[in-house]
Amino acid sequence: TLTAGVIAVQGDVSEHATAIERAARAHGEDAEIHEIRHSGTVPECDALLLPGGESTTISRLLRDEGIAAEIVDHVDAGKPMLATCAGLIVASTDPQDDRVDELDLLDVTVERNAFGRQKDSFEAPLDVAGLDEPFPAVFIRAPVIDAVGEGVAVLAEWDGRPVAVKQGPVVGTSFHPELTEDSRLHDLAFFESVEA
Ligand code: GLN
Questions:
Q1: ipTM beyond 0.90?
Q2: Which interval of the chain is the signal sequence (predicted)?
């Protein structure tokens, strides 16, 4: 059994839970999902999901609830985490926005809502390192990754910009991999040790 925690202070949760269960099943495992709203549960989890939503709100609630430090400990222990969209912004070292209290777990500079200026939302077939077929990526007011640090592997690019990255046990995507039936990104983040 994979014990997975989906951070549920704000943002979409059930779609991620479904995707994690599907990914686990593909490996002949079942998943026990904890929806995390308070401190105390993260230490029990083998894997974490930091979903999209509103990054300023999520980061504030993570600090207020004492969850932020637990997430940092989880990653320091080498356990996997998938951070999507606003989750990527919160996990970054540089969100370029003072209202985001970043976790410093992914050495990337992000620009909030930067893909959203042209189009609020779009879907694109993405070539992702480690996946045989393109991934249907849904972007919703998505952040652009402006710069990546040395320890960061770029797993996918769109329009010449990184949109999926990996550093140690953390995978970050600017898109929403939970919004299609395709759970290969959850699989890749939690079960595979892919390098770009
Ligand atoms: N625009 C949001 C933010 O900057 C992220 C969008 C999302 O998670 N879909 O926090």
A1: yes
A2: none
